Amino acid sequence: xxxxxxxxxxxxxxxxxxxDTKSLPGEIYRLYPGGSSLGLYxxxxxxxxxxxxxxxxxxxxxSVSVLTGLPISGQSRLNITTKSPLTxxxxxxxxxxxxxxxxxxxGYDAIIFRGQSEKPVYLYIDGEKVVLKDASSVWGKVTxxxxxxxxxxxxxxxxxxxxIGPAGENMVKYASIMNMSNRANGRNGTGAVMGSKHLxxxxxxxxxxxxxxxxxxxxxxxxxxxxxIIENEGIEALGKFGTDGxxxxxNRDGFLPTHNFSSxxxxxxxxxxxxxxxAKTILKGRDTCFSCAIRCKRVVEVEGKVDPFxxxxxxxxxxxxxxxxxxxxxxxxAVANQYCNMYGLDTISCGATIAFVMECMEKGxxxxxxxxDMDITFGNGSVYPxxxxxxxxxxxxGDMMAEGSYRMAEKLGPEALPLSVSVKKxxxxxxxxxxKPAVGLIYAVNNFGADHQSCEHDPFLTMPADAKEQVWxxxxxxxxxxxxxKTLDDGKVRFAIAGQKFYSMMDTLCxxxxxxxxxxxxxxxxxxxxxxKYGIGWQTSVQELMDIGERRINMMRWFNVRDGFxxxxxxxxxxxxxxxxxxxSEGHQMLKDDFEKAKESYYGFMGWDxxxxxxxxxxxxxxxxxxLD
Length: 629
Ligand code: SF4
Fold this sequence. Notes:
- The structure is a single chain.
- With 629 residues, this protein is of the alpha+beta class.
- It folds into three domains: 198 residues, Aldehyde Ferredoxin Oxidoreductase,  A, domain 1 (4-Layer Sandwich), CATH 3.60.9; 176 residues, Aldehyde Ferredoxin Oxidoreductase Protein, subunit A, domain 2 (Orthogonal Bundle), CATH 1.10.569.10; 154 residues, Aldehyde Ferredoxin Oxidoreductase Protein, subunit A, domain 3, CATH 1.10.599.10.
- Strand 15 and strand 16 form a beta hairpin.
- The longest helix has 21 residues.
- The radius of gyration is 23 Å and the shape is globular.
- The structure holds iron/sulfur cluster (SF4).
- Iron/sulfur cluster (SF4) binds next to helix 21.
């Protein structure tokens, strides 16, 4: 490939029922080569400030990348870009599976949905044949049922389907977009935007596999993948125990979010919900994404209770429905996971909102009368199926809970506000800033609310100088090693920023962090440069890739600044600054002054002013001059 490929984009106006195709020239596409960056570029070209996220004016953009669909692990990720109804900021979310690869194999880099259909529809894509179809019969169905019906209607069992469940239809603020009925674009409520447009699903036909441009060169990366996995303990464990394999370590160190983040220690009960316990009890098998050899996805079964079709819980889900809510019953957690996947809900925000209500009940801020006489108390996981259904259908207390914990707290009054553990109204994932302050900083400044997949995590820096983690950092010009991971200083800020740019680039190239991310490193940055060269003939460098990541962060920031977001929104919940009350971390405290100083340094290192706005010179350096216009 001597020139960068053009991007092919479907542009669908759901109000008019029109389907257009347009292309983005390669010289522009190279600056925003897919995923989140491509979505942002398209959104910022057209969407002004002040748009209601659930109005027809909001754009909903599906995008993949130049690398998606190549025969290598960790390249099949779908990015969704839209304005988030949960946070009011730019909305951004990724999922894996087979849908993303098949969308690219069908020839498309992105789909823009605009407007609002009068009746429920779904989009069917078979190469050049792209049609909107009536979705009235599947509207209101849970994901598994809708998937089955669509496959029968189109007489094709191999279709890949990304869809919303009833939660998206009812515009629950943290509704997800599901593919395979068990892979979620979970965060930021992108499913609610899809619901507001009366778009039930996007369906793609299975196409012929994509080939690397230089197949021999590409084989140098993929030919020895089994050996790479065996040699890499972390990757092997990830395959065996899934992401929930890390729960035990967090608890052992006293930083597993517990009791709605008021503690970091779940005691011996944590053992009952770890990935190891899951492997010994309800695990039925392992699943994967397109062409991925790691196979980290869980498939669980509990007879009469949990259907393996809906996959299995990951670490975040086990913590949100487990330790956040003091639930030690793994089967209850697996049921909650299934209900979230059936109804299309983000498991993190859903579990955290339930934990918030449990604490409101505990503190007497809410009573049984407020919650339809249900027993929503800490430790009672048996309440999950009924409660999740109520949230998705906005029935009874479910209607209030469908708004998320922050909006609930605003209604309940000042004593409830500290119990919503959220940033920019999005509930915190299961990594405690007190333990991982660099992650905490990124939670606060992240442009779409608290997110654990937007930077590298602090334990990375405590690795020995010759560890692969340190080699990775060295490639980015950072030479740091800490004995104590809880420190927050300027070195940590630089580390957080380097990681943020790298993860931002991965969300642009739609790469899975478990295959390509710094921690696990099935493939490192040097191999990524090779994958671009052998895969599509793109001669790139680590520096170009990092610039791509930085460009995306600045585009997101600009999107938010236009809507009035600033440093005042880059905050952490008050509870995070309390001393840890018990367990191995007892007495440890994250100091607010350290956090505020780190935030100032972050803005400075990023080339932003102290109100968190990118400076003109920064935008120009990143070829983002057009934003100033
Ligand atoms: S590592 Fe896991 S999540 Fe990532 S692509 Fe492979 S199977 Fe999917």
